[in-house]
Amino acid sequence: MANLERNNKILLDLVRQPGNNLCADCGVPEPDWASYTLGVFVCLNCSGMHRNLPAVSKVKSIRLDHWDDSLVEFMQERGNSAAKAIFEKCVPAFFYRPQQKDCVVLRDQWIRAKYERREFTEEDNYFLQAYNSDLFESTLWKKGKDNKQFLKRIFLLSRKDFTLRYFIKEDSKVPKAVISMKNLNAVFQPEKIGHAHGLQISYLEDERMRNLFVYHTNGQAVVSFFNAIRATRFAYLLKKHPTLRDNDLIPQITTLCLKEGYMEKTGPTQREPFKKRWFTLCSMNRKLLYFKSPLDATELGAVFIGTEDHGYSVSESSSRGMRGGRWHRGITFETPGRQFVFMCEQEQDQKEWMEAFRKVISQPMTPEDYANEANLRRGK
Fold first, then answer.
1. Which domains does the chain have, with CATH numbers?
2. Does the keyword Zinc-finger apply (predicted)?
3. Are 210 and 204 in contact (CB under 8 A)?
């Protein structure tokens, strides 16, 4: 009993030390599990993924389980910082490092890449060479543009001209689409797509946002494709901005939207009936996009969000005098040329949308933002 109490106290002291006080895999604070074969402290969620790698990692609770002296000594010798120096020795700048809120397939494949495949230990450069190759091919299931059916398609990433092509058949010589890396974004959307490995690829085509929805039944395949996209995007950004540092470019490779969901929208006179639309707000391009449904291939329209100094503002509003709206939590968004009125179903939705609008409005505009604003105005 004395040894048990002593060992638990040692582990609790260890987990409070810098490096150990965050989960080794997702960064969440106060991990209370540990892999006693790898020597890392992890959170409850990540410990579950370690259990799927019994040949590599074995886990115990640092509070509830019995720890032998030899295991505690190993944890003292190793710890998260020492393990990171081994298993994350050469993680490429473009490689996506998942956090607590990321989807399961991203976190699972990050753990497998580190400890099972040992991709970043410099023992085998096969994976790094694949991500950095001039051509990267992947077969994925893609949702049809006008129906819900997913069909097998061949995707080809090219560093030679910084494009993503996809083909209908394996022997097709002409691609169905050629997509530039300039405005391409990729983000996992398992709930929206209805598949645990669902990936959304978005890009500009004729000044309108176009979406591709894809998945692969194999988690490693789809995450490798995602990181290959990031590698190609990163190479494009390095060529476009040769003087910028990696840390300045990494946030631009792929971006999560600030807020997504349904709101009701009325027309320019505000006497038109409200219509339910799916909205996506992204801070990177400062645009509020709207679609008829979440899995639409092409946007119905876009609203640019500038700064307060340039006449943009957001405020709560009332639904009084509005026609046809079923929801009553209003948002008024002012632009130099028009007032937009949106309705949310719940107060929490209204609050989150308001916060997202204000976050974008508070960010200073870049020269590219001014160009996007001008293009949208010309388009109107």
1. 1-93 (1.10.220.150), 134-252 (2.30.29.30), 257-379 (2.30.29.30)
2. yes
3. yes
Sign of the CA dihedral 74, 106, 282, 251?
A: positive
Distance CA 261, CA 279 (A): 5
Helices (H) and strands (E) in the chain, counts: 11, 17
- The answer to whether the Cα torsion of 292, 297, 300, 301 is positive or negative is positive
Unique residue bearing structure tokens 């959170």: 43
Dihedral angle, C-alpha 109, 114, 118, 121, nearest 10 ° = 140
Give the pLDDT of the chain (380 residues) as one tens digit per residue: 447 778 888 999 999 999 999 999 999 999 999 999 999 999 999 999 999 999 999 999 999 899 999 999 999 999 999 999 999 999 999 999 999 999 999 999 999 999 999 999 988 788 888 888 999 999 999 999 777 799 999 999 999 999 999 999 888 889 999 999 999 999 999 999 999 999 999 999 988 999 999 999 999 999 999 999 999 999 999 999 999 999 999 999 999 999 999 999 988 777 788 899 999 998 888 999 999 999 999 999 999 999 999 999 999 987 655 555 688 899 999 999 899 999 999 999 999 999 999 999 999 998 888 888 887 776 55
